[in-house]
Amino acid sequence: MSEADLGRIAEALERLSPPASPVPDFEAADAFIWHVGPDRLEPVAEVNRVALPLLLGIDRARDTLLANTLQFARGHGANNALLWGARGMGKSSLIKAVHAEVRGQGLSCKLVEIQREDLPSVGRLLGHLRRAAGHRFVLFCDDLSFSHDDQHYKSLKAVLDGGIEGRPANVILYATSNRRHLMPRDMIENERSTAINPSEAVEEKVSLSDRFGLWLGFHPCSQDDYLAMIDGYCRAWGLEVEPDTLRAEAIEWQATRGARSGRVAWQFFCDLAGRRGRAV
Predict the structure, then answer these.
(1) H-helix or E-strand containing 183?
(2) How far is residue 180 CA from its own chain's centroid?
(3) CB 173 within 8 A of CB 160
(4) Could you tell me whether strands 137-141 and 31-35 are parallel, antiparallel, or unpaired per DSSP bridges?
């Protein structure tokens, strides 16, 4: 084979190989979304979030997560956090609101969102974040859960405490889930009942949630909390409604939805503001 042929083969291989990932510009924004194919961190110009004072009925979780994030942003010890529980009670909203509060106090802390299906690429993401001297990152994974044949949970261990390198000192993980153990209860019971050693059947998956230092539970809200949320939104947007009318409409709205939550309260407020010609 001639030298020219070898050169053409080398050029063809270079064209087939994926290009090197660009070095992220972490000065471009305060929040990023991780994408794969190709790997890249996309800056988010404006994060969709609710102000921290408007998140009512979750005081303990709010105070705990804020304190933990402030410790982390200041370079002190802090824990990974799993926010689990009822749908629509502000788990992901709290993470985004706490991030804004920490940034508002003049501390450097970036929010990086990774989708559950992209967890196998988390090692490459951590490589980028590890090399970002002078920056600290909250890695955010929303609606985290695993099915019976799902192996993505193994990738998550690299973020929590696995591997030779371990989690980078400038990275912390906050995840939300409707499940405390990140897997359905019926699946846990089924694997225990069919295993040779039931006590070890699901230990690997269940122990994944144990690797989060903070477990913050979110429970369905009371009617008083639900109405207080709506009152808070009305005050924040300067929307004046006669109290008895507001209460009656809010209760009717949640009755038609068959649930009370922070999400339902916000949806009612959006409808209320729209009917009164107010943008939110």
Answers:
(1) none
(2) 15
(3) yes
(4) unpaired
Radius of gyration of the chain (CA): 23
pLDDT band at 105 (very low <50, low <70, confident <90, very high): very high
The model's pTM is 0.81
Helix (H, G, I), strand (E, B) or coil at 278: coil
Both tokens of 135, joined, read 């920056």
Question: Would you state the structure tokens that stand for residue 240, as one six-digit string?
Answer: 């004046």
Handedness of CA 253, 254, 255, 256 (dihedral sign): positive
- Cα 15–chain centre separation: 37
Bridge pairing between strands 81-85 and 110-113: unpaired
Tens of pLDDT, residues 10-68: 565 555 545 555 667 888 899 999 999 889 999 998 999 999 999 988 999 999 999 99
* Under 8 Å between Cβ of 61 and 94: yes
* Dist CA 252 CA 135 (whole Å): 48
User: Structure tokens of 75?
Assistant: 């370079």
CA atoms within 13 A of residue 144's CA, in its CB half-sphere? 31
How far is Cα 66 from Cα 72, in angstroms, rounded to an integer? 10
Q: How many CA atoms lie within 13 A of 145 on its CB side?
A: 13
How far is it, in rounded angstroms, from Cα 145 to Cα 150?
9
Burial class (CB in 10 A: 0-12, 13-18, 19+), 267: middle
Let me know: does 265 contact 230? Beta carbons within 8 Å.
yes
Distance CA 16, CA 7 (A): 14
Query: What is the number of H-type helices and E-type strands within the chain?
Result: 11, 7
C-alpha span between 150 and 147 (Å, rounded): 5
